[in-house]
Design goal:
By secondary structure, the protein is α/β, with parallel strands linked by helices. 53% of the residues lie in helices and 14% in strands. The chain is built from 14 helices and 13 strands. The strands form 4 sheets. Strands 7, 8, 9, 10, 11 and 12 form a 6-stranded mixed beta sheet that branches. Strands 4-1-5 form a 3-stranded parallel beta sheet. The longest helix has 39 residues. It is rod-shaped, with a radius of gyration of 40 Å. The N terminus is likely disordered.
Length: 384
């Protein structure tokens, strides 16, 4: 009996020792698993203790995304995202892409979000999701500020319908006055206006043209009082007619030189147009049967416009204005018309768990005075 009790006591001691040894190992596993679980959570319960790093794609697009010489990013979109990330308790790893690869990275879910000057479009919405818009703008047209007059511009102005109408009116008036002079002089001035009707009317028109242009060769002279009164009246009227015609032609040439061949969206069909590859402006032009020359950025496109290789550049209005102010001031300008309204938003992979969180922080910030101040800072007064 005693031996049995000793065996039981020894068994109890062995079990107690085993449990004591096992307890620290179990506690260490649980401690290591806590950070792992918190890191995987989509919304950290305490962002300050367990921040998550989001990979956010972007592309250089001043003034929305600007890269300094040391690689630091700034700009309107960057400021907006940093506020969103701070509000949600996330850290951000920005990853730079060219524009089209950026959209591809969002579609392939290689980034958690993308922000720059990304326009919402129906085509893109089939491959990715978007936040609420944070900036509303539109497509615009950049043209040279001044144009050199060339023979094509002069010819186009000279044969415009407006000028042709003036010419036709002047010829009708000239013929009418010449015919009237023939009717008055034909019986009393047979030497000059005699002969058949064709010869007489021809002499009348010749006299009318000389008098209107103040040339006056002196070979055709009215003899009658009525004829001379008509001559005086036609001299005065001729000066007005010639002056009006000259002024109209000069105005047409001046307008063509100052405004260039592009004044409205319809003019894009007949000129050399450039835009940015993969942009919504390329799609806009393609839908209207216009095949533009494509560039990888707005600055190369505007440089081609400056050198005379293009007549117009179609792209987002704030991006054109910013680039012209920084690099082509006084040489190019943006026409005061918008071709199509544009909405900038944060691009998000489909079925992303972050969309609602981003929207809440975005809407709150873009309605604040701080956002209005950032818009004025990067785009100038009235930029938003």
């Amino acid at each position: 009996m005693m031996a049995m009790m000793l065996r039981v006591s020894m068994l109890i001691m062995i079990l107690s020792t085993g449990l004591a040894l096992a307890a620290p190992a179990t506690e260490e596993v649980l401690t290591r698993s806590v950070p792992s679980t918190a890191t995987r959570a989509s919304i950290p319960l305490n962002p300050q203790q367990h921040p998550r790093v989001l990979t956010v794609g972007t592309t250089i697009s001043p003034p929305f995304v600007i890269a300094s010489s040391d690689g630091r990013l700034s700009g309107l979109s960057i400021s907006l995202w940093r506020h969103i990330a701070k509000e949600l308790g996330y850290q951000t790893h920005f990853k730079l892409y060219p524009f089209r690869p950026l959209l591809a990275a969002v579609s392939a879910k290689q980034v958690d979000a993308a922000i720059s000057s990304i326009t919402v479009s129906a085509d893109r919405a089939t491959r990715m999701d978007f936040s609420e818009p944070f900036f509303v703008t539109g497509l615009a047209i950049a043209v040279p500020a001044k144009r050199e007059a060339d023979w094509k511009a002069v010819l186009a102005a000279a044969i415009s319908w407006h000028v042709l109408d003036l010419l036709f009116g002047a010829l009708v008036l000239l013929t009418a006055v010449g015919t009237l002079m023939w009717l008055i002089e034909r019986r009393h001035n047979r030497t000059t206006f005699g002969g058949d009707e064709a010869n007489g009317i021809g002499k009348g028109i010749w006299w009318s043209a000389q008098t209107m242009t103040s040339v006056g060769y002196g070979d055709v002279i009215p003899r009658t009082t009525a004829g001379r009164l008509l001559a005086i009246l036609w001299m005065l009227l001729g000066v007005v007619t010639t002056s009006g015609f000259t002024a109209s032609l000069t105005t047409a040439l001046t307008i063509n030189q100052l405004q260039g061949p592009v004044k409205t969206a319809n003019d894009l069909q007949h000129v050399r147009v450039g835009t940015i590859a993969g942009s919504t402006s390329q799609a806009y032009l393609a839908n209207r049967g216009i095949r533009p020359k494509l560039f990888i950025g707005v600055q190369p496109a505007l440089a081609a416009l400056k050198s005379g290789k293009l007549d117009a550049v179609v792209y987002d209005e704030p991006l054109l204005n910013y680039a012209i102010r920084r690099h082509f001031a006084g040489q190019e300008r943006v026409l005061p018309l918008l071709l199509q309204r544009q909405f900038y938003a944060v691009a998000i992979p489909l079925d992303s768990p972050f969309r609602s969180q981003i929207n809440m922080a975005l809407l709150e910030f873009t309605q604040s005075p701080r956002w209005a101040g950032l818009v004025r800072r990067y785009l100038g007064p009235g930029g938003g």
